[in-house]
Write a structure and sequence with these properties.
The complex is a heterodimer of chains A (278) and B (403). Chain A is α+β, with helices and mostly antiparallel strands and 278 residues long. Chain A contains 6 helices and 12 strands. The longest helix of chain A has 16 residues. Chain B has 12 helices and 15 strands. In chain B, helix 10 links the parallel strand 9 and strand 10. The chains are: A alpha+beta (278), B alpha/beta (403).
């Protein structure tokens, strides 16, 4: 299991002009895990700071939800923060192809065994909103929680949703949690799953700014190139999650400027950067 | 962010109560039930299953000849989008503006893989075949060029989608937005909710099975279909002389942070979403004329919603007309909030509140100002529509009659 987290949350300050939105990244972490590691995370997802969860809380959760949940815990822990800090926050989960493994296995079992092959958890735990719901319930976050994307452009769709909610200040901040397998798990017709890939998760705690940008920040420019030809053949979210993980790993508090950039297919752009006050 | 008013100027609906807005509006105000036994014509079914199914999803040859939908959910979503664009007058000019798309669909991939398996295809087992999401397909087929995002908050999905589209218009990210929600009844959905013991067992009398707020309610009935709306700024709509159905006035959301499936016994989180929507719309509880309840007909959920409404609205909770149109449409899951928005639009247009059918004896724990059996004519200027979902999701959408 590899983990990346940095310990220098920027102060909550702002920059916002002419449609460009900038938010602070108050905590962040990335995580990658194979199937065996995910099984371990189900039992021990991270430092729960005394928060009491049922032993079975992650038992039926989809693998991407487990990794996303663990990434949020790790980000909070490594930033030296408390879970309580985020009680009023919202969560946006952006998994890629949510439910292909566990939900897919349920579909296979349904065709083999009929109604009894379907677990009551099959739908609640394998939908686009399952990741955000799990983080919200598990960590007691009372702000809005929703899933976004779900397909090849899941990260892009999730970030657009995150910025539109942040601009509206519907909560003090939002966790943005993106997950994807580098190689999709393949359910078998007997209901088992072959998962030989690695599941990646990135968790960013995003908060609106009220002053000049400082520290690690995420910016959104809705009109970099409005005339750009629309194309959905852009970056696959699995690659984007890995790139973002690597960028966070390379990032150092002393560096300055953009460290990661994502062009959205409708002419907008998202960038991660370090900002220093002059 | 600017404070532009955002109007609904087009409606595309495919539902158990008809595939056009006029037909839906007429039937919802007549108190018609769309719930019936499922047949082989509805696709693979489980024995004895009842549901509110769509008879036929309209096909649109001028698009589908070049861009054939790969499954029913794709065809349903495409049909709702096309009808909404046509109804609004944007169809022939859809490529002249930036049209965004935000549609609620929580189980897009489960539905896609299940249908693929039923059709003997391999998408579940061959990930490389999943090269396009449904909204990506819609955007490509219609040649749209704005932001596109599927959103999901279980049965509250469409309220989020509508709110997101409003935001995009306000922030200038899109000129026009297609927003709503769509979902289908499938064998796996029926089996999953059945095994959760969430469904009504009153299968021998389908039309009376969904009975929100009634003392004898015993679970919900699945429904399918969806609705998509065209949103644009009021200024924009006025300039082109478009007919407004309603103004999207306010939205509120919160999470129970309590349980993945069971609604919280604490009424405060849902009340917080309702209060947030009122604040967003800048109105007080006494200004709401009609509440379209989430009320799915489950024993726990309807009573919990009643407590939240009382907490959020105070004395207005028992003075404001309320109904659950799920008594007629069944529960459309990701499409529920969208179809219930159509019901609110019908209330504006006809100045009448749709009823809760099958409400013979009000549960004492649900003591609100119900509209049982038949529609009630009254002034309707502001509607409030609750939608809650798995993951502890609470949302509330407020519409205002467009001036």
């Amino acid at each position: 299991m590899t983990t990346t987290a940095l310990h220098a949350p920027c102060s909550s300050v702002s920059a916002n002009s002419e449609g460009r939105l900038v938010v602070s990244v108050n905590a962040w972490a990335s995580l990658s895990a194979n199937q065996a590691m995910i099984d371990a995370l189900r039992r021990t997802p991270g430092e729960m700071q005394g928060r009491d969860l049922p032993a079975s809380f992650l038992k039926y959760a989809e693998e991407q939800s487990v990794c996303g949940f663990a990434a949020v815990l790790r980000a909070i822990h490594e930033a030296g923060q408390t879970i309580e800090t985020y009680r009023e926050w919202g969560v946006i989960g952006a998994p890629k192809f949510p439910g292909r493994s566990q939900g897919g296995a349920s579909i296979a079992r349904f065709f083999d065994q009929g109604v009894k092959g379907i677990s009551p958890h099959a739908i609640p735990q394998n939908s686009l909103h399952s990741l955000s719901g799990l983080v919200s319930v598990g960590l007691g976050m009372g702000g809005p929680n929703l899933g976004a994307g779900g397909g090849l452009q899941s990260v892009s769709e999730g970030l657009v949703t995150a910025f539109s909610l942040l601009a509206e200040r519907r909560a003090p901040g939002f966790w943005f949690v993106a997950t994807a397998w580098d190689r999709e798990p393949i359910p078998q017709r007997n209901g088992r799953v072959i998962a030989e890939g690695t599941c990646y998760a990135v968790a960013l705690a995003l908060a609106p700014l009220d002053g000049p940008a400082e520290g690690l920040c995420l910016s959104f420019n809705p009109a970099v190139d409005a005339a750009r030809e629309t194309s959905r053949s852009g970056a696959d979210s699995a690659g984007v999650v890995v790139e973002l993980s690597e960028a966070l790993g390379r990032n150092a508090p002393a560096s300055c400027g953009a460290i990661w950039k994502l062009e959205l297919d409708w002419g907008a752009e998202v960038a991660l950067s370090q900002q220093h006050s002059s | 962010m600017s404070e532009r008013n955002v109007w609904i100027t087009g409606v595309g609906v495919v539902s158990p109560l008809g595939n056009s807005y006029p037909e839906f509006a007429r039937k919802i105000l007549e108190g018609a039930s769309g719930i019936r036994p499922m047949t082989e014509d509805d696709g693979p079914t489980l024995e004895g299953q009842i549901a509110a199914c769509v008879d036929v999803i309209p096909a649109h040859a001028e698009i589908e000849t070049t861009f054939p939908p790969r499954n029913r959910l794709e065809r349903l979503t495409l049909a709702c989008c096309i009808e909404a664009l046509r109804d609004s007058g944007w169809w022939d000019r859809r490529n002249d503006v930036r049209v965004g798309v935000s549609v609620g669909m929580g189980a897009e991939w489960l539905r896609t893989w299940e249908e693929s398996c039923l059709d003997g295809e391999q998408r579940l087992y061959k990930p490389e075949l999943d090269d396009q999401s449904i909204l990506d397909f819609v955007r490509t087929a219609l040649g749209l060029r704005g932001p596109v995002t599927a959103v999901a908050a279980a049965c509250a999905s469409a309220n989020y989608a509508i709110s997101q589209g409003k935001r995009w218009i306000e922030m200038g990210w899109a000129d026009v937005c297609l927003v709503g929600g769509c979902d289908l009844v499938t064998p796996m959905a029926a089996a999953g909710f059945g095994n959760l013991r969430a469904l009504s067992r009153r299968t021998s009398d389908p039309a009376s099975a969904s009975r929100p707020f009634d003392r004898e309610r015993d679970g919900f009935v699945l429904g399918e279909g969806g609705a998509v709306f065209v949103l644009e700024s009021a200024d924009h709509a006025r300039r082109r002389g478009a007919k407004p159905y309603a103004e999207v006035a306010g939205f509120g959301a919160s999470s129970d942070a309590s349980h993945m499936i069971i609604p919280s016994s604490d009424p405060e989180p849902a009340a917080r979403a309702i209060r947030a929507a009122l604040a967003d719309a800048k109105i007080n509880p006494g200004q709401v004329d009609y509440i379209n309840a989430h009320a799915t007909s489950t024993p726990v959920g309807d009573a919990a919603e009643t407590r939240s409404l009382k907490l959020a609205l105070g004395s207005s909770a028992t003075k404001t007309a309320i109904s659950s149109t799920k008594s007629m449409t069944g529960h459309l899951l990701s499409g529920a909030a969208a179809v219930e928005t159509v019901a609110c639009i019908a209330a504006f247009e006809r100045q009448a509140v749709p009823p809760t059918i099958n409400l013979h004896e009000v549960d004492p724990e649900c003591d609100l100002r119900h509209v049982p059996h038949t529609a009630r004519e009254q002034k309707v200027r502001v509607t409030l529509s609750n939608s809650f979902g798995f993951g502890g999701n609470n949302t509330c959408l407020i519409l205002r009659k467009a001036a």
